[in-house]
Design brief:
Blueprint lengths: L11 H8 L3 H19 L8 H18 L2 H14 L7 H37 L1
Helix pairs in contact: 1-2, 2-3, 2-5, 3-4, 4-5
Protein backbone atom coordinates (compact mmCIF):
# COMPACT_ATOMS: atom_id res chain seq x y z
CA UNK A 1 0.00 0.00 0.00
CA UNK A 2 1.54 3.36 -1.02
CA UNK A 3 2.45 5.70 1.84
CA UNK A 4 -0.16 8.28 0.83
CA UNK A 5 -3.01 5.74 0.71
CA UNK A 6 -5.20 5.99 3.81
CA UNK A 7 -5.31 2.83 5.88
CA UNK A 8 -8.67 1.08 6.01
CA UNK A 9 -10.69 1.31 9.20
CA UNK A 10 -11.59 -2.36 8.85
CA UNK A 11 -10.18 -4.59 6.12
CA UNK A 12 -12.79 -7.33 5.76
CA UNK A 13 -10.59 -9.27 3.33
CA UNK A 14 -7.95 -9.42 6.06
CA UNK A 15 -10.53 -10.63 8.58
CA UNK A 16 -11.75 -13.29 6.16
CA UNK A 17 -8.17 -14.44 5.53
CA UNK A 18 -7.44 -14.60 9.26
CA UNK A 19 -10.56 -16.68 9.90
CA UNK A 20 -10.51 -18.84 6.78
CA UNK A 21 -13.80 -17.26 5.63
CA UNK A 22 -15.51 -18.88 8.63
CA UNK A 23 -18.43 -16.61 9.54
CA UNK A 24 -18.82 -17.98 13.07
CA UNK A 25 -15.11 -17.52 13.73
CA UNK A 26 -15.20 -14.01 12.24
CA UNK A 27 -18.05 -13.11 14.60
CA UNK A 28 -16.13 -14.59 17.53
CA UNK A 29 -12.97 -12.66 16.65
CA UNK A 30 -14.96 -9.42 16.35
CA UNK A 31 -16.54 -10.13 19.74
CA UNK A 32 -13.14 -10.72 21.33
CA UNK A 33 -11.87 -7.50 19.78
CA UNK A 34 -14.80 -5.56 21.21
CA UNK A 35 -14.15 -6.99 24.68
CA UNK A 36 -10.45 -6.16 24.44
CA UNK A 37 -11.26 -2.64 23.28
CA UNK A 38 -13.59 -2.07 26.21
CA UNK A 39 -11.03 -3.35 28.70
CA UNK A 40 -7.88 -1.69 27.40
CA UNK A 41 -9.33 1.62 26.23
CA UNK A 42 -9.87 2.58 29.87
CA UNK A 43 -6.11 2.66 30.29
CA UNK A 44 -5.54 5.20 27.51
CA UNK A 45 -5.19 8.08 29.94
CA UNK A 46 -2.50 10.64 29.09
CA UNK A 47 -2.24 11.57 32.78
CA UNK A 48 -1.16 8.02 33.63
CA UNK A 49 2.40 6.80 33.38
CA UNK A 50 3.50 6.45 29.78
CA UNK A 51 4.33 2.77 30.29
CA UNK A 52 0.71 2.04 31.27
CA UNK A 53 -0.91 3.58 28.22
CA UNK A 54 1.87 2.26 25.96
CA UNK A 55 1.06 -1.27 27.18
CA UNK A 56 -2.65 -0.67 26.52
CA UNK A 57 -1.85 0.65 23.04
CA UNK A 58 0.32 -2.42 22.38
CA UNK A 59 -2.50 -4.79 23.34
CA UNK A 60 -5.04 -2.87 21.26
CA UNK A 61 -2.63 -2.96 18.33
CA UNK A 62 -2.52 -6.75 18.46
CA UNK A 63 -6.29 -7.01 18.76
CA UNK A 64 -6.66 -4.56 15.86
CA UNK A 65 -4.42 -6.58 13.60
CA UNK A 66 -6.47 -9.70 14.30
CA UNK A 67 -9.53 -8.15 12.65
CA UNK A 68 -7.84 -6.01 10.00
CA UNK A 69 -8.27 -2.66 11.78
CA UNK A 70 -5.18 -1.20 10.17
CA UNK A 71 -5.86 2.47 10.89
CA UNK A 72 -6.29 1.73 14.61
CA UNK A 73 -3.21 -0.50 14.64
CA UNK A 74 -1.12 2.31 13.15
CA UNK A 75 -2.39 4.84 15.72
CA UNK A 76 -1.68 2.36 18.51
CA UNK A 77 1.81 1.75 17.20
CA UNK A 78 2.60 5.49 17.18
CA UNK A 79 1.35 5.83 20.77
CA UNK A 80 3.17 2.70 21.91
CA UNK A 81 6.50 3.83 20.43
CA UNK A 82 6.17 7.27 22.02
CA UNK A 83 5.20 5.83 25.38
CA UNK A 84 8.11 3.40 25.38
CA UNK A 85 10.67 5.89 24.13
CA UNK A 86 13.71 6.91 26.10
CA UNK A 87 11.97 10.10 27.17
CA UNK A 88 8.27 10.05 27.95
CA UNK A 89 6.25 12.45 25.79
CA UNK A 90 4.73 15.54 27.36
CA UNK A 91 1.18 15.21 28.65
CA UNK A 92 0.03 17.37 25.70
CA UNK A 93 1.75 15.11 23.18
CA UNK A 94 0.39 12.03 24.95
CA UNK A 95 -3.09 13.57 24.80
CA UNK A 96 -2.82 14.04 21.04
CA UNK A 97 -1.50 10.52 20.47
CA UNK A 98 -4.17 8.91 22.64
CA UNK A 99 -6.89 11.06 21.13
CA UNK A 100 -5.88 9.67 17.73
CA UNK A 101 -6.11 6.14 19.15
CA UNK A 102 -9.51 6.79 20.68
CA UNK A 103 -10.85 8.35 17.47
CA UNK A 104 -9.66 5.39 15.41
CA UNK A 105 -11.04 3.02 18.05
CA UNK A 106 -14.48 4.62 17.79
CA UNK A 107 -14.45 4.30 14.02
CA UNK A 108 -13.28 0.70 14.29
CA UNK A 109 -15.92 -0.29 16.83
CA UNK A 110 -18.60 1.18 14.56
CA UNK A 111 -17.21 -0.66 11.53
CA UNK A 112 -16.88 -3.89 13.56
CA UNK A 113 -20.51 -3.67 14.70
CA UNK A 114 -21.60 -3.11 11.11
CA UNK A 115 -19.48 -6.03 9.90
CA UNK A 116 -20.83 -8.32 12.63
CA UNK A 117 -24.38 -7.39 11.68
CA UNK A 118 -23.69 -8.01 7.99
CA UNK A 119 -21.98 -11.34 8.68
CA UNK A 120 -24.77 -12.54 10.95
CA UNK A 121 -27.43 -11.43 8.46
CA UNK A 122 -25.70 -13.23 5.60
CA UNK A 123 -25.39 -16.37 7.72
CA UNK A 124 -29.10 -16.27 8.54
CA UNK A 125 -30.01 -15.79 4.88
CA UNK A 126 -27.85 -18.69 3.77
CA UNK A 127 -29.29 -20.93 6.52
CA UNK A 128 -32.85 -20.27 5.32
Amino acid sequence: MPADTPLPVLDLDHLAAMTGNDTALSLEVIGIFREQAQLWSRLLDPMSEARQWADAAHTLKGASLSIGALKLAAACERAEKAGRGETAPSKAHASVLLSDVKEALGETLEAAARAAYDLASAARRSAS
